[in-house]
Structures are given as C-alpha cells and as structure tokens.
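User: Working on a comparison across species. This one is Acyltransferase from Mycobacterium spongiae. Can you predict its structure so I can line it up against the others?
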Amino acid sequence: MRIGKVTIGSIAQWTLSPGLVTSWHPTTASCEKARQAPVSSVPVSYMQTQHLRGYYERTAAGLDYSRQIIATCEVPGTCDIDAMTYGLNAYLRRHDTYRSWFDYAGAGDITRHTISNPADIEFTPTDHGEMTIDEVHNHVVAIPNPLQWGCFTFGIIQAESHFTFYASIDHVHGDATLIGATMLEAHGQYAALTGGGEPLALPDAGSFDDYCDRERRYTSGLTADSPEVRAWIDFAENNNGSLPDFPLPLGNPMEPTAGDMVMEPLMDAEQTARFESACAAAGARFVGGLFACQALVEHEFTGAVTYYGLTPRDTRRTSENFMTQGWFTGLVPITVPIAAASFSDAAWAAQVSFDANLDLAKVPYYRVLELAPWLQRPRPNFPVSNFLHGGAAPLNAVLAAAELGYANNIGIYSDGRYSYQLTIYVFRYEEGTAMAVMFPDNPVAQKSVARYMAAMKSVCVRVADRGHWGRVA
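Assistant: Here's the predicted structure for Acyltransferase from Mycobacterium spongiae:
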C-alpha cells in the first residue's frame, strides 16, 4: 500500500532490485563489552517486559512472534561505505536503548544489562556478495532475538544506479517513531557527509532510561483503588476479565502460522472530507467517527450493545523525548454504547471516551494485572486499532523525510511473522483513508478479515455519502 510517497506492508511485499549486499553488525569487541555489561538499576519498561515474555513464551510453545520493524529507502548512486559506517555508529551511540540487553529464563523478573560507554558500540560492514530478492528478504529478518544484544542490523543492496538502505530493528528498542528517527538521523548523517558537508549537529536525543525510571516511579504509586486503575478494571471486567476480542473467528491460535497483512482503501479524498464533516457535526473528530464505525461493524457482526476497543498512544510529552528512541507507547481503552445508536450519538460517545481516557495510556494493563490478579492476561488475537494521520507523529516524520528528499521510495515493513495481537491500522493521508490489518495467515482468518474490512468500508462510505449510517439492523 502506498501512503503518499511511503510504502507499507509485509516483508514479502517489499519490491527491490537484486544486487550486492553489505550489512553492518557489531564487532567481536563490542559483543564482548555487551556480554560483560553489568546489571542495570534501570527497570525494564512494561511494554518491553510484555514483548520479551511474549517472545519467550510463544517460542517455547513452538510458535512464531512478530518482533521487527523494517524501514527501507532508495538512494541514487553508489554507497559510500565509510560514510554509512560513520552515520550508523553515530546513530547507535546517540540513543541509550541500544546499550541494553535483557536476561530472562521464563521465571521471575527480566534483568537489564547496560553497556556503560556508548563508544564501545561499533558496527562494521560485512560484504555478502550478490543476493536474489528472496535471499535479501530472508537475510533482513534473520537478526538476533530480543533476548540478545545486537537485535538491530542495517544494510544496503547495491544495484547498478542506486542502492537500497534498510534498518531492521527489534520492537524492544523502539515504537513506530524509530522509522522517522532512523531516516532523519542515520541516513541524514550519511547524506550530510557525502554531500561534502560536516556531520549533522543534532539536539540532545533524550534518554529512554529516564523514561523507564519515571514509568516505574509512577506505576509503583498506583493501587487497586486508584481511579485510573479502577477504570482499567471496569473495562476488563466488561470483557470477560481481560481485553476485548476480535468479533470474528481467526483460527486456532495454538497452531503455528505466519503473519499476513492486507490493505483496503476505505474512502477517497472527497469522501474523507465529507466523513470529517459528519464527525464535526456530531461534535467529534475524525478518530471518534472511526471508532463509531468500528462499533457499528462489531454490533452488526455480534449484536454487542457496547463496543470496547483499544488504541495505542505515544506517551512522549517533552521536546527532547520526541527525538528519543524507545518504546513510549501505551494503550487507551475506548467504550461506545452502540445498540440502536445513530452515527452522531456513537461518534460523540467515542470521542468523549477517547478524550477522557488518554491518560490511561500511562497505566500499563500489565501493571493493572499486578494490582488486580483476578483479571486475565490478553487472550490471543486481541485487536488493537492504530489511527495514523499524515499530519501527525509518527507518520508525518516519515512523510517529511520523503518530501524533503532525504530518501526515495521509503518503505515500512513487518517481518512476516505473527505474534499475539491482531493489529488494525487506519491511515489518513492526502489521497484519502485506508485500512490495513495484520493477522494470522490461515483460511479462517483470511475470510474473517476480508469480511471485517468490507464492512468497515461500507459503513464509512455510508457516513461519507449521507452524513449518517441510516438505520441499524
């Protein structure tokens, strides 16, 4: 799928020219420094903990786990390997998350080890010769697992008139913001050096370690009676003691499967503008209207009188943290009464719920489980809906990198694995609105996701064309 000048999809959908492959990996000395790195007093964040335990448990059960964010771009000419080496090392030393690795054996707490001196991080190039496209795909996803240091690699594929740059980074070290940061920093540094200039002078990156400390101090002060914890408890108890389920069957979650991602345009630019007008008339913003449509789709599939949804929110709140690499995302619970509701009523209710619950993103559900042990961990395939606007972070940084000419043909890809969470993306950009879903690749899920996306398109277009969705069946 093309979002402006950016392509989004699964690794198998990455089209590129075959060529000579060079990749960057840590030196033996850096690996030894990491191995000797002492245990850190910095706590592991809740999102990192969830990711690492998810990887460990799914792997132990013989299942796969989606864990990589892959960013790519094309650059004219022949790669200057020395300049790229300088740019990548400057980028890695700049962000403190890359100094950490984690120790977990399936019981007890996860331990963080941290390299003390960022200068001990050194990546050097390795020449792999020519690879086919399939070989490149396999090479890019074959990075160390998140319980090893160095689960982030970079490379180029040199074609005749251009090279393709890629960054393959485990989610434990970043959320979607890393795509823009990598393009603007690592590749921007390369562009500055090869353009005959001096290395880029960048502002302070901030510290993800500091964020982890702040998160632990804040969550340690919560109790089961804290209002924000009570809100999560009520939400979970209304969903059979856990987080919501997808409204359609997705197959057996204990059967090994790859991941797939499918995409569907929901509305063109004119329909998107009319949809936004309908949201405004209801006293809602675009995001409130989208959740109202998801609520109606679930009601039509299941008869549910109330819709419960989840959406991520970036918890960065200071100017320096907008430059910080790390996983700052929390979840916001959404509740929408939907039985016999008009679009206006549902959109307004969704907007009120979204706005009222934004601060709950600072309260990890896994902290709530510690305080309310009668609740359950999320069930397999629980859905999380991401709304990404071309004018807002993190998508705007990626689009800006493309528009400013830092790179051509920017791509964002998943690793083709499936984890535990069904992920829904809705993109709003200049050409309109589109939806993508990442799901387990089995016949049951394929059929269900196709039905879901068709229903979402139908409802959104009805609202765009009429200003309402008509009578609820």
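For your comparison, note: The chain has two domains: 2-211, 224-390+418-466.

User: Helpful, thanks.
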